[in-house]
Amino acid sequence: MLSKIALISIHPKHIEKIxxxxxxxxxxxxxxxxxxxxxxxxxxxxRKQIVAIANIKRTIIxxxxxxxxxxxxxxxxxxxxxxxxxxxxxxxxxxxxxSEVYFFKNVISPKVIFSRRFHAPQSFRYLRQNEEEKxxxxxxx
Length: 141
What we know:
alpha+beta; 5 helices; globular
C-alpha cells in the first residue's frame, strides 16, 4: 500500500533556498497521479541524506509561462532562464507549493527508511506504507 508521501531529490543549493524561505515552489517535469500530502526531501550529492519533510499546500499545473508567473508571485528561487531551461520540451509541468517545511536536526540516511539498494529518484518516488512507518519511528525519536 502506498502512503500520501513522496520522496523527491533536490540539489543542495535549492535546499538552502528552501531553508531561507526564498524558494517556496519546487518545480517538477513529471508529478504524481495520486494525491499526495507531503514530500520527503533528499539532498543529492555530496550530502546524500534525507534532510526535511514538507506539506504540499497545492500543486500548480501549467505551461512554463504559467509556472514562471507563480514563481514570481510565490518565490520560485530560480531565474526565468533556469526554469525555462529545466522545463524545455514540456508543454505542461508542475510546481509544488511547499508549506510547513521541517528540517531534521539529525539527517536521515536513506538506508534507514529504504533498502540498502537505495537509488535517489529522478522525479519522485511514492513511499510505501512500511517506509512511512519507519519514517515516523525515526521522527518520533
